[in-house]
Recover the amino acids of this structure.
């Protein structure tokens, strides 16, 4: 039974990896949408759309960090002062989450692959290249 279970797990992992690669070839996200986007299923087709509440939060985070000359700690305080919350359960942004957001090229409309990022077609960009480059 152990050998059979191991074979089933390997087969299933292979199918999942093939499905993800197929999605990447189509220019679609092959994973859960990051903060600021949401996954939505219409019929049998999955779409990634801008989250109506969190999308503007991402834009504001990038604007503040790029043009206000803030550190991440200052950014956390500024977001709190402006009333911008992460979630209702965790209202304050964590430093590591903001760091991840500020480095994520998905917000440019790109998709993550095992070897890096490439242009995608499944979702609209939230940030323009000039702002993203300034943040980096």
């Amino acid at each position: 039974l152990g050998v059979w279970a191991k074979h089933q797990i390997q087969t299933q992992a292979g199918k999942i990896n093939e499905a993800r690669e197929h999605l990447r070839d189509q220019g679609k996200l092959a994973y859960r949408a990051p903060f600021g986007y949401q996954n939505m299923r219409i019929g049998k087709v999955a779409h990634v759309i801008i989250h109506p509440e969190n999308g503007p939060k991402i834009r504001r985070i990038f604007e503040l960090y790029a043009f206000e000359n803030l550190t991440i700690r200052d950014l956390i305080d500024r977001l709190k002062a402006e009333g911008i919350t992460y979630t209702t359960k965790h209202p304050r942004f964590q430093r590591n989450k903001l760091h991840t957001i500020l480095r994520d090229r998905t917000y440019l409309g790109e998709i993550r692959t095992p070897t890096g990022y490439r242009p995608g077609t499944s979702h609209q960009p939230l940030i323009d290249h000039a702002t993203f480059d300034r943040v980096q």
Q: What stands out?
A: Helices lie at 2-25, 54-67, 72-82, 95-103, 129-135. The CA atoms of residues 40 and 46 lie 6 Å apart. The beta strands are 37-42, 45-50, 110-113, 116-119.
